[in-house]
Amino acid sequence: MDVVTISTKSKTYPMYIGSGIIDQLPQLIKDTCKTVSNILVISDETVAQRYLEQVMVLLKTDFKNSYSFVIPAGEAAKSFEMYYQCQTFALSRGLDRSSLILALGGGVVGDLAGFVAATFMRGIPFIQLPTTLLAHDSAVGGKVAINHDLGKNMIGAFHQPNAVLYEIDFMKTLPLKELRSGFAEVIKHGLIGDREFYHWLIREVKTLSDLNKEKLQYAVLKGVSVKAKVVSEDEQEKGLRAILNFGHTLGHAIEAELGYGEITHGDAIAIGMIYALRLSEEIFNFDLSSSSIAASFKRFGFPVTVPQELPPEKLLQRMKMDKKATSGKVKMILLKDIGKAVIKDVDDKQLLLLLEKSYEKA
Amino acid sequence: MDVVTISTKSKTYPMYIGSGIIDQLPQLIKDTCKTVSNILVISDETVAQRYLEQVMVLLKTDFKNSYSFVIPAGEAAKSFEMYYQCQTFALSRGLDRSSLILALGGGVVGDLAGFVAATFMRGIPFIQLPTTLLAHDSAVGGKVAINHDLGKNMIGAFHQPNAVLYEIDFMKTLPLKELRSGFAEVIKHGLIGDREFYHWLIREVKTLSDLNKEKLQYAVLKGVSVKAKVVSEDEQEKGLRAILNFGHTLGHAIEAELGYGEITHGDAIAIGMIYALRLSEEIFNFDLSSSSIAASFKRFGFPVTVPQELPPEKLLQRMKMDKKATSGKVKMILLKDIGKAVIKDVDDKQLLLLLEKSYEKA
pLDDT confidence of A362, banded at 50, 70, 90? Predict the structure, then answer.
């Protein structure tokens, strides 16, 4: 089992990564939370079917007042409506300020359950139990949110979990598409913060089927370590933390324009990362071997060009609505080298020009 | 003009109290906020009619992108629906992370606007411009929230404002009933934390009409000073801060049982304070002269007995749903002496017995 310690201004907490470690959940709760009066496990339909019973059995011995609330699977559940339903359930089951919320699921569950925890009676503790590779990333760092019709993650908070337990065995049942989606964030962490790790990835993982237990555990460990370092320096994204958004400015725009759920987050940011790499090469006049990186991406099954049906102007408009944008100016995360990210305002014109070149040639 | 500095773990900020100080708002914004891209003033219909234009004119010179959103007056506006509408308005006007929210109004506006600010793009700055006496209290300390059908202020956050500007002249138009409501919190601050101030109040303010400009400013200053001290020691109500809830456990129960808006907050907590004083005398076997305090309360126009139509069992049930309660045990704020509050678990039976004695005798 590996442990990464995440130290932020507001809280320091452990992330455990390992195979067969879910049994240690009751002990982890006792170690990281004060008196716990009630526990509410929030999960989604897909995950609940597989793992909820196991988790509830584990909890019931030590924590009699344990309840579960199951939300529909998919991004649409990160809604105001579902947020309200979770709050109603929590109140009706008598949760109080000494209660604990467990987020058992992927990023959607973690974000929603985390925002419920952040705002229930002005904030109660929660623990992340990620069940996807993508959530190795979202479970760490305290960003929790729900979506608004006018934008993804627009309503939220910074609320650090008391702990993260990453059970590698949960990945066994993960569809390949989901594994790939999460792998995009793993690569991102290499690209923005750990050159050596990035090269290890490209060398050791030729295709996704190479991600066996050991390599998966190592990849999660190294990826999270990059994130932990960034978050410890800038919890609330006043500056540095924005580099974690590498590939996301265009990625989010593509997700939004296609309609959420039409493309995986990982596929969208893969396109965004290739775009950001090419923009970096243009702006810094430095060869980052974006073509060879794009070739690796293709080998993993990632798309690397913008979907034909999305007009570049629409994408630019979306990019300008990004949370990083200030006064209508798009802030891009660029690379000065592999492992070295910087934040830079980029002109609309330059963004649009490169966008136009980012479609597959007919 | 007086200044109180509120120092909490997460933020230190000033509260200005004075007559004719609203003109200093643009300067205050420049002094306490970094670059401000847009400003959204949230106000309610009653307040907007009186002061919104004045405030918007003040802002427009220095901050071109200033918008206002007016909510209905009254507690019902602290709803999920209105919360969502504020977020929608903010997003549609292009507010970003460098934007500022101003809460121009009483406690409802402050709580709602504060919660919008706390969660818009994971938190943006806000400034409180209280327009009621009650809000001298709620505007300080960072408690922001909306109501849930199952309880008042159940969904919220701790989000400190960047500054509070308390314009004494705004009180001129305050109806007597509202002035009295706020005065209950002023008295509370004396009772829990400043014996000398409490005696000054009783001596200098025989009836509410004695609250002229100077006395009002002094009362707000002293009341806020008690609160600032408590909040600086315990921002997130892990312990001490709960004493600010003196009178509120029963007070909130009465408000909820009668239906919000049927009784003012101040009248409800006045009844709650007399109840808590009597309970303190019973438990500590110490004479706090609760009868003479009740007599003063009556002189100000406060009710001091529980409304006849509310069954004691129902009130107890509500008290057990209080946010301070843990594992179904009611935590009461009691006084060991005037100016000295303590927190104590109290048995349901004792609570109920005293409740039964708290109705007006036929």
Answer: low
